[in-house]
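Troubleshooting: if your tokenizer reports a length mismatch, compare against these two reference records.
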Amino acid sequence: MSTLYLTEQYAYVKKHDDSLVVQLQDHTKRDIPLMKIDHVIVVGEITLTTPALTALLAQGAEICYLSERGDYRGRLSPPFSKNTFLRRRQYAACADMERTLAVARWIVAGKLENQRTLLLRNNRKLADPEVAEAAAAIRRSISTVPSAADLNSLRGVEGNGAASYFGAFARLLRQDLGFTRRVRRPATDRVNALLGLAYTCLMNQVSAAIQTVGMDAYAGYLHAAQYARPSLALDLMEEFRPVIADSVVLTLINNRTIQADDFEEELGTFRLTAAGRRHFYQQFEERLNTEIEHPVFGYRTTYRRCLELQVRLLAKWLEGDIPAYPPFTVR
């Protein structure tokens, strides 16, 4: 099972027998067996018929809508899990500040550890002292996570780690695409445009995993509750930002799969061209399907599966089956 990326503008998608038929503007058609699809990303002006949507939902597939620029618009999900007891435990932990802080500490520690690992891995050949110092600074931040007395101080620790990490990120890039610092929205350079799209795609994958397990993506711990904010999805994607999203961006840039002319500029902001988006989604899907040994279970599985396993581990902690939530970390 994999993700179907619909990126050709004004494509028309309908169901025929046990397949989806994608009809493009030039009247060419492509058939995709429904059984191979567990996720659909719809980018821009693309039409899915009601029978196509119904068939996808019936087999448990998630459908995510993005703008042509890559901004998240919304999603369609299969019926919500019937496991109300798990969600009640999730909400109870959200109302307990001690337990909320515990989960948030585990998540931040995992994210910082993976940021540090990414810097060290990429610095093996570079031997750049500034990258090495950034990794050392992140390690110092990790050591202060257990002593963070509340969420605000913990977010300060996370922010310090992020400043060190993105302060060195440009030194890992083998192309100069104008990156100097992390800017969320709008993306004022090409690298931030890639990072923003990667994080949006990652959040959607984590949201789908949360839906599969039966938890509420909007009730989180590290990220404050706000209307329409999928706080738990934002929480659980933190550990995977460096190892999935940032890794995809580095691979695309450093292998020159994506270059400066794969972007369009409009009023000082950047977005990928249609060709650039195809390269991006292909690399993102390859990363999700890359196998790794899970740090807790010890067997090899894909990053895509690891997203769901982390949600299940959090559920096990909420149900009292394990003493702590083990964040996903790589070596």
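Reference record two:
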Amino acid sequence: MGLVVQKYGGSSVADAEGIKRVAKRIVEAKKNGHQVVVVVSAMGDTTDELIDLAEQVSPMPAGREFDMLLTAGERISMALLAMAIKNLGHEAQSFTGSQAGVITDSVHNKARIIDVTPGRIRDSVDAGNIAIVAGFQGVSADKKDITTLGRGGSDTTAVALAAALDAEVCEIYTDVDGVFTADPRVVKKAKKIDWISFEDMLELAASGSKVLLHRCVEYARRYNIPIHVRSSFSGLQGTWVSSEPIEQGDKPVEQAIISGVAHDTSEAKITVVGVPDKPGEAAAIFRTISDAEINIDMIVQNVSAASTGLTDISFTLPKAEGRKAIDALEKNKHGIGFDSLRYDDQIGKISLVGAGMKTNPGVTADFFTALSDAGVNIELISTSEIRISVVTRADDVNEAVRAVHTAFGLDSDSDEAVVYGGTGR
């Protein structure tokens, strides 16, 4: 038996009973002969409560101190979980992200892992302990400041440790039984996927699927670490995410033509109106956005009006970055030369994902027919080899997801999807 890394989300350790239930599952893995490293998130809504508290004290808290505050949640979880494991008669040691050797860049609140040096973790498990690591956090390489990895950062911590420790698998425990063909909160008849490729999972994660974070899947693909997404509330097999199909029983699991439907209502749309249609204008716009350290998603440029020589450029970005983007563009309005800006945060994105699109020409037509039949109007379109995404009104998103899900035969014969915790992480 080799080493396994297990990650437990906030809903799994939301209270004392949850922590004790998780401790029993961890001990069971240890009894089965595995070396076990555990990455744990903050309990329940602890992180949100800490954010609210910080905003009451300071409307714009300093990044360094904000990170120091937020990492307290995971430290509480790791210590309590280690206590619960010891109470079951097994040795456990807890480690902060910095003690575990998670080295990051210096960007507070959304740092990126640049290296993992898990010497203390390896020594601990080799000595027979279960190592409990606080997720979501690390230490900056240059200033040695505590940093946080942003929302969902515990998933990335777990995969990074699994890669550094050469683990057999990284198990991500959440409050659903695996990755489903759609969000089970929206589509009650969503099916659990037995196996999905890294590529399809990356597209689903980037398109709004909340079960796995995009950075986590990208890290796993880079180091070829199999991920097993499963529920901490049941003993059911979950979803395997890997480079090659895995075998369940006596035959391999094949990937479906369509893996699933994802949606995202956390984005906004900015339209830059009256942009001169000449070389360099788009570059100036997106250089301004880049300099403000804002990530964008979809981009559409309209056809230039012959009479004016002007065009409009629309793009989507996280709602949380909307104000910053508007301010940056307005500040550089003279240099870019546009007329005005339009901001719209009442939009939603629906994405259809599946490697089978490359060899099935009818997929695009069926997708748009399903949206049309549901009375959903499309504002933006973006595609890749294995994904089609559209932007619609936010109010239409749920109906659109259900319509597309049904049109592609993804509905289960029964209400299969169960959400145990309620948050999806």
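Descriptive notes for reference record two:
- The two ends are 28 Å apart (CA to CA).
- Residues 3-253 form a domain with the Carbamate kinase fold (CATH 3.40.1160.10).
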